[in-house]
Design goal:
Layout (H helix, E strand, L loop, with lengths): L3 E5 L15 E5 L3 H10 L4 E3 L3 H8 L5 E4 L8 H6 L2 H5 L10 H12 L3 E7 L10 E3 L2 E5 L18 H8 L9 H9 L4 H11 L9
Parallel strand pairs: 1-2, 1-4, 2-3, 4-5
Antiparallel strand pairs: 5-7, 6-7
Helix pairs in contact: 6-7
């Protein structure tokens, strides 16, 4: 079965890596350099460099399955915990949580007739809409995701080479180590991406342990 998939905030495509090439996949990424890396990894996909939030609003009804991974820093527990007390006292450095995350969840729930999932890191506050949980991630969807246990302990302390091997990507050598680290930390485990796609269409071929 060929599925029309919209992959929003695609990054380098960790969630997409094991989806195969039989589906029609459109990837949206606003960083041109990262979009180029994604296209090199997945030459059969249609890659568009633009604002994913706006693209969703205008094109959602053209797809069967939508995966969205909005930027997470303003919700992240790690970002909150790493902020010093002095930074939290400084009103000029504090930011409101980016509510595009919940805008997309509510929008998809009420307007999209296909299958959808929104992924984000665990937040420093109790989520406003109850998600599924997997490792360090929250998932909101209109289908049962099921068993998504995945060992993710220590991923931020491993070497870049270990992270590349674990996720199955070899990033370009001309990228800085800081950028590689950021890209890989934001990369959803491919096995988890496959499991969720399979569960969306009731073809569970993967059991995460």
């Amino acid at each position: 079965m060929t599925i029309k998939i919209l992959n929003l905030y695609a990054g380098i495509g960790g969630n997409r890596k094991l989806w195969g090439n039989e589906h029609e996949i459109t990837a949206i990424e606003n960083n041109q350099g990262i979009a180029k890396i994604y296209q090199d990894f997945f030459p059969n996909d249609k890659v568009i460099v633009c604002d994913a939030h706006e693209y969703l609003l205008k094109h959602f009804n053209k797809f069967d399955f939508i995966w969205s991974s909005p930027p997470c820093p303003s919700h992240s527990r790690m970002n909150f915990l790493h902020s010093s007390k002095e930074e939290r006292k400084d009103e000029g450095k504090l930011k409101f949580p980016d509510m595009k995350l919940y805008e997309e969840i509510i929008f998809l729930k009420h307007w999209f007739k296909g299958k959808w999932v929104v992924e984000n890191v665990k937040s420093y506050y109790s989520p406003l809409i109850r998600p599924f949980e997997s490792g360090n991630h929250f998932f909101w969807s209109n289908f049962i995701i099921g068993n998504t246990k995945k060992v993710e302990r220590g991923i931020r302390t491993k070497s870049i080479e270990d992270k590349e091997k674990e996720r199955g990507f070899k990033l370009p050598e001309d990228l800085t180590n800081n950028l590689k680290e950021k890209i890989l930390n934001n990369c959803v485990f491919p096995e988890l991406g496959l499991h969720i796609l399979n569960m969306a269409f009731k073809e569970p071929q993967t059991t995460l342990k």
